[in-house]
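Methods — Computational structure assignment.
A single polypeptide chain was analysed. Its primary sequence is given first, followed by the predicted tertiary structure written as structure tokens.
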Amino acid sequence: MAGNNTRRSVNRCRVLLGLAALLFVEQGLAHHSGAMFDDKASTTLTGTVKAFQWSNPHCWIQVLVPGEQGPIEWSVEMGSPSQLFRGGWKPGTLEAGDKITVVIHPMRDGTKGGLFVSAVRVDGMRTFAALPDWTGIWQSAIWPTDVSGRAVGGEAQLRNRLQLLRHPPYNAEWEAKFQAGVKNTAALAEENATFKICSRGFPAIMEAPWVFQIVVSPEETLLVFENQQVRHIYSDGRRHPPKEELWPTRLGDSIGHWQGDTLIVDTIARTSEPIAPRAWLSVLSDRAHFTERLRMVNRDEIEDQLTIEDPIALVEPWRMVLEFKRVPEMNRMIPFDCTENDRNPVVDGKITISTP
């Protein structure tokens, strides 16, 4: 009997430590709205499992958390038994008396409850929501290039495809600034004829010609571009830094969380530079706020539903969908160096070719 209990305990630990905890359910697919959960906040509960309810439409973990007046009971909502089973859970994965730490998205109204995010055993080892496999090398679908290094179809077709070249939904004040810039045709022509881009800010980096890899971990997702720029999207429950510790950078400050196989990204504190090459007049204020919904459509496609909000410059949210294709011809990154053998100097307002 003791041997059976030991094996059973070991099996339970293996499930907790080695298998996926839960695939978050998109709010639209769940049986009720997720509006009561604050999905931009996280609360960590350390305590004892009072009960693990394996039931439809939701499984529940009841956790007793020590308090000054005695244990406080928290209700942690999970998915259905079918969803948990696909994530590696079983009815006996948790039992009353188990010591765990649980991270949740808390209730907005302060009720002692929330939506399951992840769990940590008392021995410090972690189980986390099953994360998607986005390995491989990717590139913006707008940028199929040939061996010339130029976009297939030429500059005109490229401009028609680039989402960030669309006209921003400016309010009257910012639209007037935009139209004033449009009239300076000579300056725009010179900018278009001489620009050289070795790096890009956000969101322009997401429509760049450079290939990139995606590294997904529970703590953060990295987008590593061949030009050596890296986007850090922190998904460990942290918030944006406080105002006194936050300053604008080209890629901004990005935090994220998972809803099923979709990564929700929140970005602020981006420098107020033109939103993309060729869009020299499209600028935003320092209050611009970016929300992305990144998901794999199929094995060879990822889409990024991008929403830009700016209470200073825009009259309404600016929405677009960016698409990325797998690059099957490559199985490793090849570094790109913009200056290694740059033989295209700008001379007298024109880009030329120099001799070796």
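Note: Residues 2-128 form a domain with the OB fold (Dihydrolipoamide Acetyltransferase, E2P) fold (CATH 2.40.50.140).
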